[in-house]
Amino acid sequence: MQFQQLLYFVTVAETLHFTHAAEQVHVSQPSLSQQIRALEKELGADLFTRARGNIALTDAGKALLPLARRILADADTARHEVQELAQLRRGRVRLGATPSLCTGLLPDVLRTFHDLHPGIQLLIEESGSHDLVRELARGALDLALVVLPLPTPSPALTTVELLHEDLVVVSAASVPRPGRGRSVRVADLEGEPMVMFRHGYDLRELTVAACRAEGFEPSFTVEGGEMDAVLGFVRAGLGLAVVPRMVAARAGRDLRVTPLARPGLSRTIALAHRSDVDPPRAARELQNVLFASRVRQTASASSKV
């Protein structure tokens, strides 16, 4: 079994067309078909049905596809690892993060990392924790910043707590402050118009659960947005939102930030990677920057208490 054969197989499986697959991998269609036949002969099973030009995966093909993708991803990672030059003058890091972390934590971290290693290419995947865990497992990411607890814990992943982050309430500067004092209780949000994230968003689930624990259902004026959209709706005076403190710190002066009264709400951010392989060298350097950032964030939070 050759890597080239696996590449051809995955490309045909994704396009379901031998000619289009051959064009993508820059070989002739007869050569690609010959390599697929050789792979099928070695495995002792047909990988595709070829009925009247309609291409479909067989059961054997469906079983091989996720394994082939992972082998190719690992080979690609190995190639980049070996090709890295001394002092990290070249390489790449594939980092996944939730949208709120892309907005709050990552800009400063990536700026620091880029200043240290300007030759390293940064590839960012923005998605929810559940999707990021899946991408890590199949080898498409080197690292991921996720919110704990994970929706589906996996022994195939190693997670290390990075930081605990407080949540705060943001509202338009032009509308009255929620609550009566300089902080607001979760119970004070009852009846307040709120802007809410889409389903599957970690912050949505945390906020709704906190409101229900206080005995009420939150009232939504707008729901379904990502972080930037939610902040825009809040600026327009459509309602308030519960967001991470780091996001609020970057949101601008046109938003009023009100802390939640103790015990408040918080979330735990973790750095995850696959357990069976060490992250590439460039990814390990980014880990160091992230953990150095954790020290700074902790010190900053302590100074505000």
Termini separation comes to 60 Å
How many structural domains are formed by the residues? Answer: 3
Largest sheet: 7 strands, mixed
Reported CATH architecture of the largest domain: 3-Layer(aba) Sandwich
Structural class by helix and strand composition: alpha/beta
Total strand segments? 11
Contiguous helical run count: 11
- Report the mean per-residue pLDDT as an integer: 88
CATH first level of the largest domain: Alpha Beta
Strand content: 15-25%
**Helix-strand topology string:** HHHEEHEHHEHEEEHEHEHEEH
Question: What's the CATH topology label of the largest domain?
Answer: D-Maltodextrin-Binding Protein, domain 2
The global form is elongated
CATH homologous superfamily identity of the largest domain: Periplasmic binding protein-like II
**How much is the radius of gyration in Å?**
24 Å
Low-confidence stretches: 298-305
Helix content: 40-55%
Question: Could you describe the 3D structure shown?
Answer:
The chain is an alpha/beta fold and 305 residues long. It has three domains: 3-81, Winged helix-like DNA-binding domain superfamily/Winged helix DNA-binding domain (Arc Repressor Mutant, subunit A, Orthogonal Bundle), CATH 1.10.10.10; 88-163 and 269-303, D-Maltodextrin-Binding Protein, domain 2 (3-Layer(aba) Sandwich); 164-267, Periplasmic binding protein-like II (D-Maltodextrin-Binding Protein, domain 2, 3-Layer(aba) Sandwich). The chain has helices at 3-15, 18-25, 29-43, 59-83, 99-104, 106-116, 129-137, 202-213, 227-235, 245-249, 281-303; strands at 48-51, 54-57, 91-97, 120-126, 143-148, 157-172, 193-197, 219-225, 241-244, 255-259, 266-274. Strands 3, 4, 5, 6, 9, 10 and 11 form a seven-stranded mixed β-sheet that branches. Strands 1-2 form a two-stranded antiparallel ribbon. Strands 7-8 form a two-stranded parallel ribbon. The longest helix has 25 residues, at 59-83.
